[in-house]
Amino acid sequence: MKKDELLAPGHRTCAGCGPAIAIRMLLRATGPNTVICNATGCIEVTTTQYPTTSWKIPWIHVLFENAASVASGIREALDMQGKSDVNVIALGGDGGMMDIGFRAISGLWERGHNVLVITYDNESYANTGVQRSGGTPWHASTSTTPSGSASKGKDQWKKDMPAIAAAHHIPYVATASIAQPFDLDKKVKKALSIKGPKYIHIHCPCTIGWRFDESKTIEIAKLALDTKMCALYEIENHKKTLTYKPKGTPVKEYLKAQARFRHLTDEDIEEYQKRIDEVWARDFE
Amino acid sequence: MTKTVMEGSLATAKAAALCEPDMVVAYPITPQTHIVENLGKLIAQGKLKSKHIEVDSEFSALSACVGGSAAGSRVFTATASQGLALMNEVLFAASGMRLPIVMVVANRALSAPINIWNDWQDSISARDSGWIQLYCETVQEIVDTIIQAYKIAEDKNILLPVMVCMDGFFLTHVVEVLDMPKSVSKYLKKYKPPYAILDPKKPQTQGPFAFPKPYAELRKDLSDAMDASAATIKKCHDDYAKLFNRTYGNGLIEEYRTKNKKTIIITMGSLAGNVKEVVDKRDDTGLLRIKCFRPFPKKDIMNALKGKETVIILEKNISLGTSCGALFDEIRSIHCNIEDTPKILDYIVGIGGMDCRTDDIENIINQSKTKKDGHIEWLMEK
Amino acid sequence: MMLMKKKHIPGGIITDVGSTIIEKTGTWRTFKPVVDMNKCIGCGICERFCPDGCIEIKNKKCIIDYDYCKGCLICMNECPVKAIEKEIEKK
């Protein structure tokens, strides 16, 4: 077994878990001089089943919606104790960060606390059985937005969390994907080198929630990038810079690879492509 | 010590400052706001070396306290009413994680309708959250209790958060003559966290997921610590008395002119002041003030009520669905253990800031002979 | 004395960090990834993408820790030289 791994194996994430890959990549970048404040969610519940823990660095979980405010308290305490060099990370899934914990995050960004906020976005409340969240994409079928003859799944477009982060004018905002580990690594290291609040949004496919074979987690993550379903960029000094150039693969390939989009007709997919192209043009052209 | 004249909220802030918390977490809510404002002022003037964190909500206020305390720092915050209600989920996490947070609650009524005045519905509704609750009668007592609260909370065998409850407006906005200690360093040492820290040199996991068996065991430990805290509260009170020469009963309850009295009024908080004024003029009635509501000092109360004929409870809360207040329920639960069980009457008073004046109390005592055991009544303004 | 009798650190703090290693999640496997050492070039891609951190590159070869490998086969799917194949797990 590897000694330098900061997340020990034996945790109970699903086989092929995207978020688990994200956390491993994150910890490789942060190193051991880091405190993680984890919102309730898949990663929290699978890694700390009392009396065992996978975490080899200081780690705390309090509630679902307060990771950012707990992290603020930790930051101030460590600063008072002369430990300003310790990285503090507020970590959570899309439900914990984009929905229920959003107020606390906005507060942290506004206060300017030296904390890295990270969303591992697997696009649903996966831990409770895949309910729709603000991170769920348009037309995905979830357990609370099931598709049927009168429904095409979720009616709304995904919440643009990085744009909201950028609107707080914090020094660093980035998106990342587990399909691009070196890019992710670079962004985490860069974020931690900047004092102040920063945000990284990590796209991680979920085998159970998105319904694809567990061996295809990375393949799906790559497809998300190439079909423009997920864009990789950084926002610094109000300037957005793309860090990955998508191949422009038809979105159909991404949608067809996941059973959560199985109900979509060719017409729906055509409409989907149109909207993706519009959003891309709006945001990146 | 020289006497000073001070607003309740300023005295509260100064007492908290004497304890040198590493951080003060602030969010405004009437009637608490003056407390965190005054602390902010002390920090801005360089008189207190603490971090002042202005958060986005009471939910975040207590969450930041949890983070600071979990990282091994001493923390302070204050709230009231809706703020405390919003914190509810965090209250349970803070006690479950055994974090020695001290929080002042400026007691205020809960919505709806919205009302800014005093009653105890806010903190009474949080009575099962695993927080020690100490209700104070005067601003002086608030000052002394805050200092004791850190000592109690941080005791290695206790490690529980403490709510110091003060009646909104009646104590927060009153100007009182009091003794403000110059220093508490002989009484309260710098906080050294016995367990919870967040240090990369000594990594640990806090707030894990627990299956039923360890969950139940940890909750039992929490309950045991709560029970054990009664003795610690008494000891911290007595030790404080030795240094500062002020006592509040035995730290848990205060018996005032109860000797040879057949009728006892039970109440908490600043209302005890009015009751004392009434009792001073009567030879039939005494006062039992409950200072510590959690842990509930059953034995002390049982002893105090031995041989009494009538117990009149005056309480500023209603446990909806039981027709009575929480104090009545609690006293009733030990009723059968009291020798020659007395008659117990419950008066719901001061709801939403309604007056409960000395003549009201006189009337209640005078009518008590005609009332049957278990009588419940709301005192309404005419 | 009271504390010495207690089984738990107050608040359920865990100081034995990394202790999930007692959970041998390898028992979850249906398929087992098997590495052809002749084909493996030790690039480390499988190591990066393993959700369970149970792949190590030693002497430029991929070594899978079957105590923890849940058999998701991401490694097989992502291997650029197709050095990993699956076998049905024999229980």
Largest sheet of chain A: 8 strands, mixed
Number of domains of chain A: 1
Quick one: how many beta strands of chain C? Answer: 4
Helix content bin of chain C: 10-25%
- Tally of DSSP helical segments of chain A: 11
Output the helix-strand order of chain C. Answer: HEHEEHE
Return the structural class of chain A: alpha/beta
CATH class of chain A: Alpha Beta
Percent in strands of chain A: 15-25%
Poorly predicted sequence stretches spanning 5 or more consecutive residues of chain C: 1-5
Strand order of the largest sheet of chain A: 2-1-3-4-8-7-9-10
Strand order of the largest sheet of chain C: 1-4
CATH topology group of chain A:
Rossmann fold
The biggest chain-chain interface is: A-B, 45 and 44 residues
How many alpha or pi helices of chain C?
3
Provide the CATH superfamily of chain A.
Thiamin diphosphate (ThDP)-binding fold, Pyr/PP domains
Q: Low-confidence runs of chain A (pLDDT<50, min 5 residues)? A: none
Q: Which structural category fits the helices and strands of chain C?
A: alpha+beta
Describe this structure in words.
The complex is a heterotrimer of chains A (285), B (382) and C (91). By secondary structure, chain A is of the alpha/beta class. Chain A has one domain: Rossmann fold, CATH 3.40.50.970. Chain A has helices at residues 18-30, 42-47, 67-80, 94-99, 102-111, 161-167, 181-193, 207-210, 217-226, 251-256, 266-284; strands at residues 34-38, 59-61, 87-93, 116-121, 147-148, 151-152, 172-177, 198-203, 233-236, 239-242. In chain A, the strands form 2 sheets. In chain A, strands 2-1-3-4-8-7-9-10 form an 8-stranded mixed sheet, with helices on both faces. Chain A has a two-stranded antiparallel ribbon with strand order 5-6. In chain A, helix 1 crosses helix 7. The model of chain A has no long low-confidence stretch (mean pLDDT 97). Chain B is an alpha/beta fold and 382 residues long. Chain B has 2 domains: 3-244, Thiamin diphosphate (ThDP)-binding fold, Pyr/PP domains (Rossmann fold, 3-Layer(aba) Sandwich); 254-378, Rossmann fold, CATH 3.40.50. Chain B is built from 12 helices and 16 strands. Chain B is globular and about 70 Å long. The model of chain B has no long low-confidence stretch (mean pLDDT 97). With 91 residues, chain C is of the alpha+beta class. In chain C, 15% of the residues lie in helices and 20% in strands. Chain C has 3 helices and 4 strands; from the N terminus they run H-E-H-E-E-H-E. In chain C, strand 2 and strand 3 form a beta hairpin. The longest helix of chain C has 5 residues, at 45-49. Chain C starts with a helix and ends with a strand. The A-C interface holds A 1-2, 5, 7-13, 15-18, 20-21, 24-25, 47-57, 178, 181, 207, 214-219 and C 8, 12, 14, 16-25, 28, 48-54, 56, 65, 67-68, 70-74, 76-78.
